[in-house]
Amino acid sequence: MAAVQTEVERAIVTIVTCFFEHAGEEGKKETLTQGEFNCLVAKELPHLMKDVSLEDKLKELDVNQDQELKFNEYWRLIGELAKGAKKEIKAKKK
Ligand SMILES: [Ca+2]
Ligand SMILES: [Ca+2]
Q: Locate the S100/CaBP-9k-type calcium binding subdomain domain: which residues (predicted)?
């Protein structure tokens, strides 16, 4: 990857790096357990996930129902949060 990155490029790398940092803490290296997920949210998404039950959220995102989140399952959360951000930006513009 090129050394000079734009803000958006860095943001993408940050999201991916953050997943794998937390996924590597216990159990399988490439999936998030409930504990790892809770830790990731507490550390990286405290404002956006304030009033969310993390048990329910993990179940909702866990497409293959193995009680862990692989990257594409976690990515659905990023999509949801992006949609939320879009709504806020649009609301501000009005
Ligand atoms: Ca793990
Ligand atoms: Ca899963």
A: 8-50
What's the 87 CA to ligand 2 centre distance in angstroms?
Answer: 28
> How many angstroms separate the alpha carbon of residue 22 from the centre of ligand 1?
7
- Domain boundaries along the sequence of the chain: 7-93
Confidence grade of residue 2 (pLDDT, cut at 50, 70, 90): low
Residue 79 has pLDDT above 90, yes or no: yes
Residues 6+ positions from 26 with CB-CB distance below 8 Å: 33, 35, 36
**In the CATH scheme, what is the code of domain 7-93?**
1.10.238.10
